[in-house]
Fold each of these.
Amino acid sequence: MVEVRPQLQSIRNRPEPLGAVARLVARALIRCDDETADHQRRIGAYATALAASVGWDREPPRRLFHAAALHDIGKVGVPAAILRKRGRLEGSEMAAMRLHPEIGARLLGTDWHPFLRLAREIALHHHERWDGLGYPRGLRAAAIPMSARIVAVVDVFDALRCDRVYRPALPDGDVVTFLRQGRGRRFDPQVLDCFLRLFQRDGADGLERSGRRLAGYGLRRLPH
Ligand SMILES: [Fe+2]
Ligand SMILES: [Fe+2]
C-alpha cells in the first residue's frame, strides 16, 4: 500500500495558497449584490489590523487576512433572489439567509489545513453575539472564538458604510453610534473599544492600510 502520510505532511507544510483561494471565492461571491470583492478584502484588512491591536496573535496576520475575507462564503448556498431582495426578509427567507454560516463551515469543513480551520471558525461564528443571542450556535462572550468576535465588529462596520440593496450607506457618525449601541450586546466590549479607538485615530483607509501592511501586502495592489 502506498504510504500517503508523508505526502499529506508535505502538502500541509507548503506555503498556503491563500491569495488564490480568496480570489476564487471573491469571484464566486460577486453574484451576491452586497458582497463584493472589495468588501471581502476590506474585512480581511480591518480584521488583521484589529487583531494586532487587541493583541490576538494566535494566527499569522496573512492567514487571518484571507480567512476573514471568506466569512460569508456560505452565501453561495443562499438563493440569489433572497440575497438581492430589497426590503425586509420574510421569516422563511431570513431562515434561509441565516444558514450561511453553517453552509460556509461545511464548505470549508476540513481540519487538514490550518488556513481552512481558521476560515471555518470565522465563517461559522461571525454572527454570534456577545450576549448569546446570535446564531447559529448562540455562543456567549468568551465562548465565541476571538477570530469571530473581531470579524463581527469589522463586518458590521463595513456593511453599514456601504450601500446595500435595501438602504444607502450610513455616515460615519451614525455608524459609530450603531456600533456603540451594540457594546456588550452584539459585540465584545473590549474588541469594540479597541476598534473605535483605531477608527478614530486612523480612519477606515488607515485601518485598511495597516491591515495590508501587517499581512505583508504593503501598498501593492492585490491581484483580482
Ligand atoms: Fe455573514
Ligand atoms: Fe460581510
Amino acid sequence: MTETFNIIRTARAIVRVTDLAAARDFYVNALGFIETEADNKHVYLRGLEEQSHHCYVLKKAETPGVEVISYKVAREQDLDELAAFFTRKGMPVKWMEAGSQRAVGRALRVADVSGIPVEFFCQMDTVQRALQRFDLYKGACMQRIDHFNCMVPDVQKAYDFYIHDLGYRVSEYTTTQGDDRIWAAWLYRKPSVHDVAFMNGKGPRLHHVGFWLSDPMRIIHACDVLASMGYAKNIERGPGRHGLSNAFFLYLRDPDGNRIELYTGDYFTGDPDFEPVRWDLDDPQRATFWGHEAPDSWFDEAMGFVDFTSGEMVATTEATLEKTKTGFRHLRSAERALKRPRALLSGRIFSK
Ligand SMILES: [Fe+2]
C-alpha cells in the first residue's frame, strides 16, 4: 500500500425511484428518516444523529437504478490523489464540480475494479443534528448510514483492489468449504465491521444499503409500524441476527424494490492487531445465527447501477463461483481447473 489518500467512511447513495411521493411515505413516514430538503426531482434524507445534509438521495426517474455509492475522504487533497491513482490505472474518472450537486463540494466519480460507480467527496453542508430531538423520532428511528453491500462476479478481484490499492481492512470473510475460495468479504475504513461488503453473485449490482439503528427494539418496532401502515409485504427477511458481523438485521424493499437493511449490534474493529473472522460458506449460522434460511429473492435480486459516462445501465456478468439454494456450492466447471492455491488466499486475508 503506497497510496496516501484517506477514505473516512460510507457517506451516501443516490437511488432512483419512480414515484417520489410513494418513496417519501416509505422512508420518511414509515422508517423515520429526516427529510432535510426536497425539490421536484429529489428528496434528501438523513438519520437522526447525522450532521451531514444527507446520506440517501431519492431521485425521480422513469426506471429504478443506483446512480452512485459515495465515500467521504479526509482532505480535498485526497480527491486529487484518488483521481491521479484511478487515471494511472486507466479507470474511468469524472469530476463533479462544487455546486453541481446539492450540498456537496467537488466530487470525484470513478468506476471501480468491478465496474461499480463510486464517488468520493470531502465536503458536504452540515445541518442541525436531531439525536436529542426525541419529538422527531418515529418508525425505525433511522440513525445513520453504515455500509453498502455489493454483488460482484469476482470477489477476490474486488477484495484485492480495496485492500491493497484503497487501504480497506477486512473484518470477516466467507470461503468455500474445502478449497478456501473467497465467497464474500466485509471491508472497513471506519472502525466497524464494514463500510462495504462484496458478495459473490451476478454483478456488479447493489444488494443493499445498510443503516444503523440504536438497538434491536427499534427494528422490532419498525416491523409493527410497517405492518400497521400496509408495508408488511415490503419486509423481505428478518428480523434476525447474523452470525457474520453479529448484527441484528431486517431487510426491506422500498416501493420500487430497492433494498435497505436496518442494522445494529456489530462491533469495534479499530485495533491494529484485530484478527479477521473466517466463516465456512456452508455454516448455517453464518448468514443467520438462529439457523433459518433467507428467501430466494434475497439471494437472486439486487439493484442495477447506472453508468455515469453513458447513462446506460452497467452491464452485469455471472459470478465466478456458483451456488444453489440447497447449500451445495461448487465452482463453475471452467473455474475448477484454474482454482488458485489455498496459500494465495489466506496470505492476503491476514496482511493488513
Ligand atoms: Fe448489510
Amino acid sequence: MHKKVAFIGSVGSGKTTIINQLSSIDTVNTDVESSVDIGKQFTTVGIDYGHINLGDDMSIGLYGVPGQKRFNFVWDFVNDGLWAVVILIKNGDQDSLSDMAYLMKYFKVDQNSTCVIGITHAEGKETDKFTQKVRDLSEQMEVNLPIYHVDARDKSSAMLIMNTLIAIKETQE
Ligand SMILES: Nc1nc2c(ncn2[C@@H]2O[C@H](COP(=O)(O)OP(=O)(O)OP(=O)(O)O)[C@@H](O)[C@H]2O)c(=O)[nH]1
Ligand SMILES: [Mg+2]
C-alpha cells in the first residue's frame, strides 16, 4: 500500500530539506532560482517527491508543495487521498504563523487528521513564546496537534516526525 504524506508550510520552512533527509531514494526536486526576493535563492515551484519503504507491502510517498501561494495550483495535485500531513513552521517567522491557519483549512486538517507540526530553524533558540503562539493557533482551529522542534537538515530529527505519524496511526486503528 502506498501512503501519501504532504509537507506544507511557508517559504523557507524546510519542506524540501526534510524530504531530502527522509527519502530512501534520490528525491525529485523542482527548485529553481526565485525570480522575486523571498529571502533565499532557490524555491520549489512544482512538487518535491521522496519515498520511504516500510517492508514489502507498504511505502510512504513524501510530497512537498511550494510555500509560495502563487504556485498554489500545485497544492491541489497533492491535496487528495492524504494519509498524513506535516506542517512546518519556521521558528520566529511571522509569515509562517499567518500562513498556518490558511494552510490547515486548505489541506482540511481537523481533529481527525493525522498531522504533526514541526517548528524548524529552532536549534538552540527554541522559544516557549513562539511555540505557545503555534499551540494557541492550533487550538483556535479546534485541533490539538503534536508540536516538535525539528532540524529539517538532520535525519534523526526528521525521523521523529515520521515516527510520530506512524504512532498516531497505530492509536487510530
Ligand atoms: N538552521 C536550519 N536551517 C534549515 C532548517 N530547515 C531548512 N533549513 C535551511 O533553510 C533553507 C530553506 O529550506 P527549504 O527546504 O528550501 O525550504 P522550503 O520549505 O522547501 O521552501 P520553498 O520551497 O521555497 O517553499 C535551506 O537553506 C535549508 O538548509 C532547520 O531546521 N534549521
Ligand atoms: Mg521547497
Amino acid sequence: MSRRLNIKICTKQEELQDAIKVRESAFVEEYGYSKEELVLYPLDNQALQILATDYSGTPVGSCRFTPLPQDLDNLPPSSTLNPQTENSARELFKDSQGGRFWWLAVSPAGRGRGVAGGLIKYCEEYTAEMVRKHSSTAYMRIRANYKAHKMYLRFGYVVDSEKFLLAGQELIWMKKTWKV
Ligand SMILES: CC(C)(COP(=O)(O)OP(=O)(O)OC[C@H]1O[C@@H](n2cnc3c(N)ncnc32)[C@H](O)[C@@H]1OP(=O)(O)O)[C@@H](O)C(=O)NCCC(=O)NCCS
C-alpha cells in the first residue's frame, strides 16, 4: 500500500479530526486510554499532526511529531518542543539534532500494509532534511508501547530503557541515530 499512501502534515481542521479519529480507533478502543489523554497533552495543539490516507482518500494512519532540541545524551525523556505549523517546525529544527513521534496509529482496516512504516519514514525523512543543514547525525526518540515495540526494531530502533508502567500501560524508551 505504501506507494499509494499520501502522508502529510495536517494543516486543516478536518485533517486533524481524521488524525485524531484514527488515533482513537487504536488507543481508546484497543488500549483503553481516555479520549482526553490523546489530545490534552500540554501544547498538543501546537505539535505537528501527521495523517496518512490511502488511495481512496480514506484516513488510515496518524501520529504526532515534534523536533527535539538537544543532543540525545543530554535529553530528559519528557523534553519536547511543539511547533504549530510546518514553518514553525522548520524554525525549531534549526538547532535540533532530532525528533520524536508518538501516538503512532493505524486503523484496524489499514494494518499490515506498510502504513506505520510509511509514517515512520516520513518523520525520519523530515528530521533528516532539517538536521542535515547543521549536523551530520540525526536521531529519533520514542516512548513505545511495549506490546508494539518489536515493530520499531525492524526499523532500526534500539531499546533505550527498562520497561516501565505509566497509566496502566507498559512502555519502553527507544531511539535511533543515523547519518544524514
Ligand atoms: C502497531 C501498528 C502501528 C502497526 O501498523 P501497520 O501499518 O500494520 O504496520 P506496518 O504494516 O507498517 O508494519 C511494519 C513492520 O512492522 C511489523 N509489525 C507491525 N506490527 C507489529 C507488532 N505489533 N509487533 C511486531 N511487529 C509488528 C510488520 O510485520 C512489518 O514488518 P515487515 O516489514 O518485516 O513485514 C498498528 O498495529 C497499530 O496502530 N496498533 C495499535 C496502536 C499501537 O500499538 N501503536 C504503536 C504504539 S507505540
